[in-house]
Amino acid sequence: MEHITTPKVENVKLLDRYTNRKPANGTLYLTATHLIYVDASAEVRKETWILHHHIATVEKLPLTTSGCPLLIHCKNFRVAHFVIGHERDCHEVYTSLLKLSQPVKPEELYAFSYNPKMPKDNREIGWKLIDLKVDYQRMGIPNDFWEITDANKDYEVCNTYPPEIVVPKAANKATVLGSSKFRSRGRIPVLSYLYKENNAAICRCSQPLSGFSARCLEDEQMLQAIRQANPGSPFMYVVDTRPKLNAMANRAAGKGYENEDNYDNIRFKFIGIENIHVMRSSLQKLLEVCETKSPSMSDFLTGLENSGWLRHIKAVMDAGVFLAKAVKEEKASVLVHCSDGWDRTAQVCSLASLLLDPFYRTFKGLMVLIEKEWIAMGHKFSHRCGHLDGDLKEVSPVFTQFTECVWQLMQQFPCAFEFNERFLLEIHDHVYSCQFGNFLGTCHREREALKIFEKTHSLWPFLLQKKQEFRNPLYKGFTAYKELKPNTLPFSFQFWCGMYNRFDKGMHPKQCVLDHLLNCMSQKMKLEDSATDLENKLPFLDGPLPDEVCSLSKIVNASVESSKTPMLNTPQDYESEPPALLTNGAIVEEVDIMPSRDQKNKENFVNHHDLPDLHSTMEVIESDAKKEKLQYQ
Amino acid sequence: MGGVNYVTRRRAALQPEEPDEESWEELVPPPPSCPLAGTAAGSWGGREAPGAMLGKGAGGSGAKPAKPSFVSYVSPEEIHIKEPIEKELNLHLLPGELLLCEANTVLKCVQEDGSNRGTYGKLICTNFKIAFLGDESASDDNEPEFKNMIIGENDITLHCIDHIYGVYDEKKKSLSGQLKKYPEKLIIYCKDLRVFHFCLRYTKEEEVKRIVSGIVHHSQTPKLLKRLFLFSYATAAPTNTDIQNQTVMFDAIKDWREELERTKGNMKYKVLSANEAYKVSEKLPLYFVVPMSLSEESILQYQGRGIPIWCWSCHNGASLLKMSAFPKEQEDSTSQMHKIFLDGVYKTINKPPYEVLKTDDLSSSLPSLQDIQAAYTRFKQLFLIDNSTDFWDTDVKWFSLLESTNWLEIVRRCLKKAIEVVEYLEGQNTNILLVEENASDLCCVISSLVQVMMDSHYRTKFGFQSLIQKEWVMGGHCFLDRCNHLRQNDKEEAPVFLLFLDCVWQLVQQYPPAFEFTETYLTVLSDSLYIPIFSTFFFNSQHQKDANMPGDGHNAQSSHFRFLTVWDWSVQFEPKAQVLLNNPLYVEKPKLDKSQRKTTRFKHQRQLSLPLTQTKSSPKRGFFREETDHFIKNILGKRISKLINSSDELHNNFTEFYDSWHCKPIDFHGLLLPHIEGPGIKVWAQRYLRWIPEAQLLGGGTVATATKILDMIEEVQSLQKKMDEKHSRTVPQGREALPMLRNSARLSSLFPFALLQRHSLKPVLPTSTWKDLEDEDDLAKRDDEFVDLSEVI
């Protein structure tokens, strides 16, 4: 609070980036956690909330006739352009925001003050929601070849790995420790995913400290153990996700890559994914394209190409596809690394798992995947997202790229994911929001030190609560798709308007199909419910016909099932607005449209059917159904 | 036997024998003693030889036992004993179609790699198509469900051929004219973007000569209009009694009157019949609509040039007009006269009851036809792929390649222009007069786009088809020249209609629920441009069509002669395939009243409730606007209208209108404006990528969405059906009869639909959504094939 000198400024204009409309006029508030802008000129109260942690940069532009412009770029790609009447106010807001957006101490992060007023037990249950052991069990581990060890319980193997790691049974403690001496930062090869059907595994590590000629017997044994854990294949792949040049340059620093001659039966591969610095500047270029005012087709296409962003996304995707193919089709295990094995390796391993295993395409699955490959394995969220005031060179959109890869897959396979785009955006928002403890710090050890499990809440239960609005109405279920084989030709990669232009109204493809479908689903439910109701009425009028009994029970079952997994009953307005995210107040916008929209949907429904007599029955039943659902929720 | 279906097979069986000799220069004269020449032959004499020959087929008395349908030119010892059967199974000729030449043991190569993998078969050339009859077709099981009954998988109509290349010693050369050397490989690029590789290495030299020169001759050399297959087909095809089609053809005065009434343009505009017998102009249709105040003499005076012709009226009374410009005259006096005449016309229109008129010269504000043609030529090269290696090469610079073609920018500019026009009509209550040299190219694009955006009627299937009839077919778009169907003048070629379809696709892609048809419909429509059995896209004008109708009254058989229209989709697709042309998510406009009056009133209110620039504009501008009429009328004449609309303000109005519309929730039955920012405009993947195996995505893509949607709709429907049954069951007496009714209901496609009709007043147009359950059931089974359709083919 000590940073806030001017908590309220009146007569502030908010310019719309794309439209030439008259700018909104309203009041700006600064709170301990948010910047809130209330638009007074609109007929209905319209609030814009910007979380301080979301602010990437604040700029004060040269004074204009209308006032002093303040340009705020957010980490979730919102750009807010305020014009403040008095220069002095503007400067005060500016200095406050600079401090508020870049906390120095971890204790200042929102997560430590965020209090959703829930009992203490719930917090603990929340943290236990995702249990990685269960996921390993799902893969059949422990088994004859793999075991979960607590070899790292005191972080003596690797201080950025979690205490429990999965290694080949054949690798004894000496091998593990020996190998850790030979791997950059001790990040030894550990299991990431085991493809149960053929025992091929995806493992991950950091680069070897091989220099130009160094060898390590234990490391060689380690790789052999991994290869032998998959008896079906005579060889294994070792994939270095860096461009060859980068890897070679590392040799001079005593690091580098595996020498094929030193390891038995490995096939070594480079997959050229660029480093975090290239990715950072690529995103910068992409955002410049996004910010161009009414670009021509040619501006857009050349800008998109010159940014190289989609090429990088494609490189990550290609690597994921390579891994999935190796595992599924060649039945070979793969060991993946980059430099430290926490950026590109995390992207590639998690993407490959997502391609191979339909579980990771469910709500729970994606949470497990992020928890496993990113959080537990020490992706440095705090540095990459710039949570705290620190080295800007460490910031890089590595996780954003993963999110985008998932989205690209969703574009190609619209029915294969249980969740929709908004789920990804929500997760992405919270990676930066520091509202929940999950993404704080850089590794498990640091999070323990921060006591996040005692002091903060976990994101996942919060997301599960809001599951309904994140549901993909097109999802065909767990069994419909096994492994995905995405197309990685250049035209298969689309620009993700929903992410990079998310806050620019008018730029959005209106998600009307989704809307319609949610309508359909709720219709289906209503019809099912009323069918049940009519069935129930039947016995009173007359005994049911013999052949009816079975169908009756079927319908009842169906309707019970559907109430257990309630679908969205009131379709939201996804058309003109990004939905109101973070109900706790991070972003809430123009809630006013919803009722009218709702109304329209209802009208739609009426027109669609025009079954007046059925309708009245349905309405009665609908309310019953709602009550029933409430109980389940 | 893959490509065979019942209908074509039956037609093939009707074919009489082929002539014994083939000749490249002229179509074959009928054998003097052709015993099968039927009634039509007599009427046609020697003029239309093939037609005469096949007259018998048209007669429908073709119940002859199976017989080889043509005489093979291979030497007798080569004729395998089972070959006749195979031929009978494989080759289906349409009525009027003649086999011209053929070659055996041709290898159709798989494009994937340079290797010569592929299937062996027979390559034939007829006066309609080039077809490859391969062994691959033997597998009957995987016959695609969605298939064209006219054009098989390995058929290329002669008009669909874009370029033919021969490969000589690994070098690719364009083939045309007289050939001295014959290539070892034939590469055919099609206008629907298929690429065929036919390896002739294993074919007899003589056959190679014959087939290559035959194909080159029949597809590449200029043709006479009368030689179009269209005529042979129309003569020979069995004449069906008129098929009920709800598409308004605009060839009758009543169609125009109804359109005027529907749009409430009848207060200010009138239908003219002055052009009956084409007295006024051969470019204009028989009937057209002009401002009420325009005198008939002036129309006659300038042969229809310089006359504002009505396209459509907006709910607020503002109208969309088009006009062909006067040619640039050398002589001062003539151009002076034109000018005075035009001023007079403008003045007439600027007077009440008309709104202010704004003219827009499209030839100066949009790319030229040459630009469009050049852009499309570059664009399609991205998708005409010889082998996958080429394709992967595009990898690195896909977006800059796309950008360098400029095609998407042209699409964007057309959409933008259309929005500008919409803004004038809707936002400023201004009449818009589109001017172009012939008013039949970009005028068609822009006026139809405006109507699609503003009038939800044109987003239904029949409405859209009527629109194409109105603006394109009757509007005198030179399909024959623009598609270069006759190969007479390459310079006239320009894919104007494709440009329009691409623009509509952008809209469909952005607002799927607003359209009754799917992108598949648009794709199939674009393919139909090259199928010369439909007259729709094979004439430059209505006059040309009428002038070429055979039998000018003195021929009793002329009633026999009937062109097919492309809108009769049953010619190309079976009903279950046609389902895919309909958008399952489309919801009828919530209006059940047939009375026109109510329609417009309803629409009026709805659109007024939309936030318009007008209501939001600053007081100053509003004041000025209100005064506009007055000013123009009395003091300053038309010049001020140009002053008011200075380009700066135009831009502001445009963006304001565009932005305010996009900020509001969308009404799928109201005004529809496309996104025209960079990310909004996309490549019409279905049309351009459908033949590229590498673009395939198993179980994914928009098709996955579509099938899932169909599944869900089916679910809703079946539940509803179930409920309806239950519901009627509660009616006491009906109970006894019900089990039977229910069983028959499963079979009868009428059941759910009829029931729905009873409960609701469904509009006249059939909805795809609730059509009939049988079709929906089929669809469920078709999931996989449907994937094939757009992703694989």
Automatic annotation (TrEMBL), chain A:
Binding-site residues for substrate, renumbered to this chain: N275, I276, C338, S339, D340, G341, W342, D343, R344
Any one GO biological process: phosphatidylinositol dephosphorylation
Gene3D superfamilies referenced in this protein's UniProt entry, alphabetically: Pleckstrin-homology domain (PH domain)/Phosphotyrosine-binding domain (PTB) (2.30.29.30)
GO cellular component, one term: nuclear envelope
GO MF entries: phosphatidylinositol-3,5-bisphosphate phosphatase activity; phosphatidylinositol-3-phosphate phosphatase activity
Record keywords: Hydrolase, Lipid metabolism
SUPFAM superfamilies: (Phosphotyrosine protein) phosphatases II (SSF52799), PH domain-like (SSF50729)
Alphabetized InterPro entries for the sequence: MTMR8_PTP, Myotubularin, Myotubularin-like_Pase_dom, PH-GRAM_MTMR6-9, PH-like_dom_sf, Prot-tyrosine_phosphatase-like, Tyr_Pase_AS, Tyr_Pase_cat
Stretches assigned to the Myotubularin phosphatase domain: 126-500
Keyword Lipid metabolism found: yes
Catalytic residues identified in the record: C338
Similarity field: Belongs to the protein-tyrosine phosphatase family. Non-receptor class myotubularin subfamily.
The name this protein goes by in its record: Myotubularin related protein 8
Originating species: Chrysemys picta bellii
Gene: MTMR8
TrEMBL record, chain B:
Gene3D superfamilies: Pleckstrin-homology domain (PH domain)/Phosphotyrosine-binding domain (PTB)
Domain of life, source organism: Eukaryota
Family of this protein: Belongs to the protein-tyrosine phosphatase family. Non-receptor class myotubularin subfamily.
A single cellular component GO annotation: membrane
Name the UniProt record assigns to this protein: Myotubularin-related protein 12
Intracellular or extracellular location(s): Cytoplasm, Myofibril, Sarcomere; Sarcoplasmic reticulum
Gene Ontology biological-process annotations: phosphatidylinositol dephosphorylation
Main subcellular location of this protein, as a coarse class: cytoplasm
Tagged with keyword Transmembrane: no
Keywords: Cytoplasm, Sarcoplasmic reticulum
Transmembrane segments: none
